[in-house]
Amino acid sequence: MPQDDENKPIQTNIPPKTGESSWLTTPRFIRHVFDKFPLVTYPLNQLPSRRPTERNENTLFIFAREGDARRGVPSFNPSCLKWQTYLKLIGVDFVTVSSNNHASPTGSLPFMIPAVSGAKVTILDLVRPISSHKIQEWASKHCARTEPNDMRYEPYLSLLDHRIRNAWLHTLYLSASNFDAVARPLYILPATSSPPARLALSHTLQTAALQELTKASTSPVIDLDSLYRESDNAFSALSELLGGDDWFFGEAEPGLFDAGVFAYTHLLCEEEMDWKTEEERLGRGLRAGKWKNLVEHERRIFDRCYR
After folding, report:
1. 55 - beta bridge partners?
2. Of 70, 83, 251, 269, which sits most exposed with the smallest number of CB within 10 A?
3. pLDDT at 125
4. Using one digit for the tens of pLDDT, what is the confidence trace for 210-258?
5. Are 92 and 143 in contact (CB under 8 A)?
6. HEC string for 14-60
């Protein structure tokens, strides 16, 4: 292209050619439609005059029965219970609301909507959620509590996140009697009244659990003896780590790790969960007193947070 082409004025007054069709030309019948129904751009709706300008309570959305959530009863979901307990342990005031993954803006529970107030509060401030992996960061701004700076922290945390969680998934979703007795009334029946939808949701949860366990296994066949042996070994390691201390890692006050252990030990020992013990191998050692200090640890946290 010659250099001076860039400086030529753009002609805007060229008359359109007539008698020629173009692919950019709107077909006549479509123009007639828009002639009858012209597009109108309306102004933005005003926010409701009675919109909330304050939300004085931090709100944690968890898996829980409706009445239980209002009373602050422990969640029946380990992940939700972990964060519910952690916030109580560090002294953050909040209320709990019963919810589910489909209603969560983050796609999973728990999530939190923090308290806001002031004349300049926007609608975004009222709905901006904090996902579970950011709750600790948010809480650190409201509490000076820090987690132990101990090199053993991550390896022991992996026992909870993998060995114990894997056994939990099998116990809850893939053990037929426990799925019917525990998972179905807690996760399936409250979600929908439609039998086909309940069947589909059951299939989805069980398939997801199976995929998680298969992914964690070196074999396409899940070795149940190995699965529960590893969870027993994990509880034994946690019991040894706790020893005669009140809290893990010898801390003066309980923290997130204590809340994570409690989330499993409480639910496995809770009679209202209605576990079918003939198939419930995960909590058998706890209930039999094999790891007495873990049960005592569970009682200390329960008494502190939920009495």
Report:
1. 116
2. 70
3. 54
4. 999 998 877 778 899 999 999 999 999 999 999 999 999 999 999 999 9
5. yes
6. CCCCCCCCCCCCCCHHHHHHHHHCCCCCCCCCCCCCCCCCCECCCEE
* 302: pLDDT strictly greater than 90: yes
pLDDT bin (cut points 50, 70, 90) of residue 205 is: very high
Two tokens, residue 239: 């019991």
